[in-house]
Amino acid sequence: MNSVRRLLAASVISVQNSCFIYPACQKCFSRLMLDSRRFNCLKCGCTGEAKDTSYRYRLSLKIADTNDLFDITVFGSCLDPFFGVTAGNLWRCIQDFNQLSGETNTDASPGVLVQAVETCFIGKRFIFGV
User: Fold this and answer.
1) Domain parsing of the chain, residue ranges
2) How many helices (H) and strands (E) does the chain have?
3) What is the pLDDT confidence band of residue 4, given thresholds at 50, 70 and 90?
4) What top-level branch of life does the organism fall under (predicted)?
5) Least buried of 4, 35, 68, 120, by fewest C-beta within 10 Å?
């Protein structure tokens, strides 16, 4: 496998997902399986109490340079400056908002957050490390 890293200057065409945060394993960063009391990582076997779950950003974008379209996913704390808080803090804010508004889908991001993310990224040019 070629592990050469390149930089790609490209503009964001669209945001491909509306859920920007996921429960992440602290060891391997894979998505955790959660229930009301425990979490479990299917990849590395890590387990723990649900209250100790870590969260991580995952933003899937469609981008374009001068010649091509690409689907790219940006992970982790490099997104903290764009959201203004860590993924864990934003997840808590979303949970509080969903509870106050009566939203039953715990993975749902408020529409206003989705709109803000689209406004922040769509049409803007970034340099991506790929």
Assistant:
1) 7-129
2) 3, 8
3) confident
4) Eukaryota
5) 4
